[in-house]
Amino acid sequence: MNTLNPIAKEQLINSGFDPFTIQRIESHDLLKEQVNKFIAKNGEFRQTNPHLNESGAFTPKY
C-alpha cells in the first residue's frame, strides 16, 4: 500500500481539509493514488473560498 505524498498532505492541511477528511483520503487507495499523481504533475491545493462554498480546492499548474 502506498502512502500519501508528504507535500500533498501539507497542502491539504493548508487548504482547509480537516484531519478526519485527510485520514479518509489516506485510507482510500484509489483517491490517495490520484492525489499523489496530481502533486507529481505539479498540481497545487489552494486555500478554500468559503464564499463559493468550497471545502477543499485545487488548482492545476501548467
Main sheet record: 2 strands, antiparallel
Count of separate DSSP helical elements? 3
Whole-angstrom Rg: 11 Å
Q: How confident is the prediction overall: mean pLDDT? A: 79
Strand content bin: 5-15%
List the strand order in the largest sheet. Answer: 1-2
Low-confidence stretches: none
The helix/strand series, from N terminus to C terminus, equals: HHHEE
Structural class: mainly alpha
Helix content: 40-55%
What is the total number of structural domains?
Answer: 1
List the helices and strands and how they pair.
Blueprint: H1 6-14, H2 19-26, H3 29-40, E1 44-46, E2 57-59
Antiparallel strand pairs: 1-2
Explain how this protein is built.
- The structure is a single chain.
- With 62 residues, this protein is mainly α.
- It has one domain (6-51).
- It is 47% helix and 10% strand.
- It has three helices and two strands.
- It has helices at residues 6-14, 19-26, 29-40; strands at 44-46, 57-59.
- It has a two-stranded antiparallel ribbon.
- The longest helix has 12 residues, at 29-40.
- The chain is globular and about 35 Å long.
- The N and C termini lie far apart (29 Å).
- The mean pLDDT is 79.
Keywords:
62 residues; mainly alpha; two-stranded antiparallel sheet
Summarize the entry for a quick read.
Helices cover 47% and strands 10% of the residues.
